[in-house]
Amino acid sequence: MSYVNRKKLGAGDWLNYTVLGFISLVSLFPFLYIVSLSLTDPTTYTPLKFYLIPDKWSLASYRYILSTDSFLHALKSTAFVTVVGTVLNLLFTFTMAYGLTKKWVLGRNFFLGTVLVTLFFNAGIIPHYLLVKEMGLLNSYWSLIWPSLTSAWNIIVVKSFLESIHPELEDAARIDGCSDLGVFLRIVIPLSLPAIAAFTLFFAVQHWNTYFNALIYISDSKKWTLQVLIKQLVMENDASGIGETSSGDEALVPKETIRMASIILAMLPILVVYPFLQKYFAKGVMLGSVKG
Questions:
Q1: Quick check: 217 and 137 in contact, CB under 8 A?
Q2: Which of 48, 146, 224, 285 has the most CB atoms at less than 10 Å from its CB?
């Protein structure tokens, strides 16, 4: 006979749950409003009306925005920066962190000190811009990738995680004839899959939400990322910045519903991925915090 010990909720617990539930519902209202407005049929749309549930459902705004050249260009730009940037971030972060775990590496203390210094000192926006300009990366996708290949915080966290791997495993692999590269690829990488999964999500979300760097480094509207394009749509008085539709469709779609649909489309990939990979984010927060 099974027995479940259930704690009796007191008045304080019910008060906390009630307050938190109310805050959660209030926080959902803006999101529900955006979704509802984006799904409102253009023929029934009324300006300045609060839409919690559309009077008539329609995907006209989504069809319109997915047929525009500007949105498709922004989607391709963001996808390229996200995929390539994430792969390079993982490559540079894990290789450098692995090298810093080896005390016999020549110049290890110098490079480790250089990494630590960047935690406390930042050159600022203007030096970064001048550096990107001198490298000839302005108005290029690489301006969003090369300057942020890795960071001191990521290297230190990954280094702490790699140091928790028992060195006896690497010694055994070397005895069997593995080179340093072979040890890294065949021993370290397979044992680091939880960390790789977590940082893949960190880097992918960071690149997908790229806004400020794209705003100051990219001047060609055809190379804008999704976040920059959405900023133009939301902040301008009209939605003309989205450009002509690739299909030549001249259908009249309310500008407000176009803005809301673009916001939902930009958030959708992250919203789809998060529920399935949330556990890796939780593990990623603890990476390197405890050494075994």
A1: yes
A2: 224
